[in-house]
């Protein structure tokens, strides 16, 4: 989904739930990634007619987003999650502070373009690799990913989940 | 410490050349799962021909775990064909593992659905649905009275595992007004029917969930009362199911099961013919790895699964309970499935099938005869999960 469409959509729908964690707290324990992913997915799943299964479907990709924040966010500032329910779609938006190098890497890794930041450097190249794998993973799970830089010094990633996930 | 580790297990079954990964695999680095990767490589190293990677109960995996697994599988010797067995319950699983299969010529993916549910295809036929409804109607007369004795109270949180077409869950909802009721089954067709009926009746509170009863996507310790009716007997590994029923039940809560003993179905007149046929029914199910003689074994099963305060009682559904035609219709449906499909699939001779059918005909006669008596015995048992 293009950044413009995301912004337009957000103006018509407020988030149904928001969660903020201190970045240092998230980074203090790897298992928090798993817990946060399951917690958010569980909330959204309650709206679905098959809650346990839909939560499981969301959690696999949401966990990757949280792991990305664990690896790339700055040690200070909030890591923010917003959940949106729309027609035929659930969106999970995650934003956090990070370096310009990391922001550029995430944008390049997802859609090949850096917006305001400089080209990624050493650490950025590691992130590009992670984000490319995340992008492929999301494709397989039929999840649309988008990234946009947010001022000041924040990146926002949005994952769009189909309400009716295709069954194999 | 990695708490996820407590929710993950890997094992190798040399008899079936199968490595099974169960639970949630979300390591921070491949180094964290070295033992799992070694088990996979070493186990497959001891296999020849075809080996299986069973991931049907792998409920979550992260990219790190998946990539490590990919690397590990690619390193297995090329002569070995590896079949990755996924489950349709985990919606992302088959698609994800298909990408892995595309990287190696010796890797293929199979979606597992029926191996654990040997009886499912026999009862999934839509024509069987009215019979299932009638069966529930007949047993409900008894169970409605019995359920409070097994600890079901108004306002409880209930899970009905292997709910089939969902009629029992709907009746429980109406009678016991639970705080929450989740009904889970592995048949999409049955669940579609259950949802359709629930919608028609304006019943919005029952949560119908598609799932594998042997690895449910439900949290631990959350239900006051867990039911599993007429289903343990059609699983080839009932102890695996009981473990899951135990897991989702809260400490102090109860698990309630019902099972039959088919060889004890009876009738008068024609008692001998009826007895012979139902003894053969038990053997027929055993041929397909199902135990329809399980009823009296309930106490042992619950005890071995770790429950205490076990209660067992039996009841006989008879032609005198309600409309005898209902019972006759059920017997006719049994004949259609058991003699018309299962015996044929087993390869029984026409002579055997003729005699086999005669017992059902006689049972129907007994049910409809003005002086006749026909019975179908069922065992209901429950156990408490210790604190």
Please give the count of helices of chain B.
12
Distance between the termini of chain B: 26 Å
The protein's oligomeric status is: heterodimer
Mean pLDDT across all residues of chain A, rounded?
85
What is the mean pLDDT of chain B? 90
- The CATH homologous superfamily of chain A corresponds to Histidine kinase-like ATPase, C-terminal domain
Assigned CATH class of chain A: Alpha Beta
Output the number of helix runs of chain A. Answer: 6
- Our estimate of the beta-strand percent of chain B is 25-35%
Here the CATH topology of the largest domain in chain B equals Rossmann fold
Please, what is the CATH homologous superfamily of the largest domain in chain B? Answer: Vaccinia Virus protein VP39
The helix-strand sequence of chain A is HEHHHEEHHEE
The pair of chains with the biggest contact is: A-B, 29 and 36 residues
Please render the helix and strand layout as text.
The complex is a heterodimer of chains A (168) and B (387).
Chain A: H1 3-12, E1 17-22, H2 23-27, H3 31-45, H4 51-72, E2 78-86, E3 89-97, H5 100-111, H6 122-140, E4 144-150, E5 154-162
Helix pairs in contact in A: 3-4, 4-6, 5-6
Chain B: E1 8-13, E2 18-25, H1 34-45, E3 50-61, H2 63-74, E4 81-87, H3 93-101, E5 107-112, H4 120-123, H5 129-146, E6 157-161, H6 167-176, E7 180-185, H7 188-200, E8 206-210, E9 223-229, H8 238-248, E10 249-260, E11 266-268, H9 271-287, H10 298-304, E12 308-318, H11 324-346, H12 350-368, E13 373-384
Parallel strand pairs in B: 2-3, 3-4, 4-5, 6-7, 6-9, 7-8, 9-10
Antiparallel strand pairs in B: 1-2, 10-13, 11-13, 12-13
Helix pairs in contact in B: 1-2, 5-6, 5-11, 9-11, 9-12, 11-12
